[in-house]
Amino acid sequence: MKLGKYRTFNKIWFIASLIILCCLAACGSKETVSSGRTYDVYYVNNEETGVFSNQYQTETEDEETLLNELIEQLGAVSAKMEYKAPLGENFRLLDYNLDGEQLTVNFDNNYKDMDSIKEVLVRAAIVRTLSQVGDVGYISFTIQGEPLMDNGGAAVGTMSADMFIDNAGDEINTYEKVNLHLYFANETGDRLVEENQRNVEYNSNISVEKLVVEKLIEGPNSEGHYPAINPATKVISVTVNDRICYVNLDENFLNQPYNVTSDVTIYSITNSLVELPNINKVQISINGETALFYKESVSLTNLFERNLDLIESENSPAE
Question: Given pLDDT bands bounded at 50, 70 and 90, which one contains residue 201?
């Protein structure tokens, strides 16, 4: 009888030990899964009307390895059949380069075969996915090493995730309207005149800051107002950090075809941007370089603030 009780006790203890070990194994497994990080990988829906995300979990901490993993996921077939992989199209990603905060992704010529709506969606999915990597602050696209151009022939420039609306997808190609307060040159080119451009329609995938600079390059709408910036100037990027707007232009900006002072040109940009509520100061660079002088008189290493002294006393008529 005692032996039977002993055997029964051993059997119960054995089963209890198995249960404990299984629980410990389950807990250990759960800890392993939750110790990794989760990232959103963005896809284009089959209707090509928006971008949607799937979660991807990885233990990877090395940023270069993580970048490779996310690029691989962008080309992988989604578990949800209604989504298409952005890098699963007919173009190829040739290579990429991460230099500081700047990631450049380089595609073959087939990238340009996409229609404009699909291209924006693919670009949004790639940018929003890869921007999650720690060091990546800005992303630029190149085609065979040349900058990606938009439908108007202008370089798309650098992009960040916040340039693309965070939504269910159907708003990513919407157009919005905004009122702009822009400053152009007066007739003699030595003062600024204000021009209110109301209900300006723009693609919501570009920032209002970039829109302001592009409108300044485009020139004024009002009679008696004159451009202050070389119309051949290309906008490489416009970004804002800590209320400072960083405007990166190409070398055409340095060539001034108009009879305007250097201050009028500089503060045409500065005063117009500072009208926006999120900007206090402006820095201008040429192809990323600030150790330059504009017209040999204005150092671009400066942070420029609003200059009210250059504005003519009489307001320009509203548009």
Answer: confident
